[in-house]
């Protein structure tokens, strides 16, 4: 067989695999299942970049939300950084550490509660002390190893060891390796059940040979997990995958198969999700994330991106690794957890956040709206959305604007519980085009009702049946109104209690006009029109007839 024939056949097989990947129809039977450990760094890495730092009580509340979401690891803070941080870690360890995870995990029944600490003895002592209240606990120690950072850090250590900013190799030999051995020994002697994570800070800018030597030394000294931080977000999925794979192989070959690799991604280059995927393909089985991507500069790898990646790329991961990756996320809690993050950290949910961001759940273009609505009616929620949003506690929003169409308008009116006949939908759509052409911007639901729905209903029914509504003298001390109709009839509506107002009186009057009517208090909306003394109120409400 010629080289050209082999190349052609290989290319054909690759093309077939790519086609199956894109269509999500991979015929792959993974050799085994492996659970991905999700570690939240919201309350440490995420918090240090936010304008508002949660109180101890708020941090505990948020940690509880993370457990409900099924996250197995919570880095509760940096206990050595100060009293509040120490109190926060202690409280989370004691109050959240014993809450069982909602789904079974191979890593234990309880979330792992961790404190960060520099690889300095005084910091290590405080960190170990802070997590003692958690049955599943850990300490995360770190030190920067990149040559570019060395001259601008460790001033005290350089003075102590009589080193200059040029003595990088001596620093590694005299400080880094001995300190790892000493402090790891202390941690294991003090608390043998405390899980030990070591971070090679600025991993993606550290020379690979230096990083590898330090990582193997840390594993030999007792590290349970090795964290590989892309501290400044300069990695890309290809180099991250290759680097993780090389480290995984080296650990395995040296008898450290039990040591788990972690990727800690930053989003400075908008590649943290891709780098997380690359790390998983390379052999990482733990990832650091923050809700909404909170974190310094461009932020951290977001939990939402991780979930999106897992739910859309699992077939590709299985095809590449022959491993079926599982996780413990409780997906229906996803929106509630994002909202908890927004509330506790005093920040809005970024509109482009995967799955939970407003733009991610909106359908605007008319042709997209019509096709997606047809799919939803047929039980298919992914026609114009990559995932079924309902699984994550999120609702698709059909936005009415200049690009909207009949299908989208139909969905909006159904969502608002506005009754209409399908045969009249064209008239509603024509009114929508007229209004949107003049507004040139999106309409909220109240504006859809006022400017599109009600005027079209009046046109369909031949004019307003009710010609006048005016307040009259009170009846038994309760607000009363008179409702006049175009056929000359008058009806009196009276509020049910002294505390109720005009809207309630109108609603009771309408019940006299239409039998079996049902009007709910959340079915009406009042807004003002005009300015100053010429302003008036417009109230609209939806009624339903059981017939």
3D structure, described in words:
With 547 residues, the chain is α/β, with parallel strands linked by helices. The chain is built from 17 helices and 19 strands. The longest helix has 23 residues, at 168-190. It starts with a helix and ends with a strand. The mean pLDDT is 85.
Arrangement of strands in the largest sheet: 2-3-4-5-6-7-8-9
**Total number of beta strands:** 19
End-to-end C-alpha gap: 77 Å
Fraction of residues in H or I helices: 40-55%
Beta-strand portion reads 15-25%
What's the helix and strand layout?
Blueprint: H1 3-23, E1 32-35, E2 37-40, H2 42-46, H3 56-68, E3 73-77, H4 83-95, E4 112-118, H5 121-130, E5 137-144, H6 155-160, H7 168-190, E6 195-201, H8 208-220, E7 225-230, H9 237-253, E8 260-265, H10 272-282, E9 286-289, H11 303-321, E10 323-326, H12 334-344, E11 362-363, H13 366-377, E12 397-398, H14 406-415, H15 425-439, H16 445-461, E13 466-475, E14 478-485, E15 490-494, H17 502-513, E16 517-518, E17 524-529, E18 536-541, E19 544-545
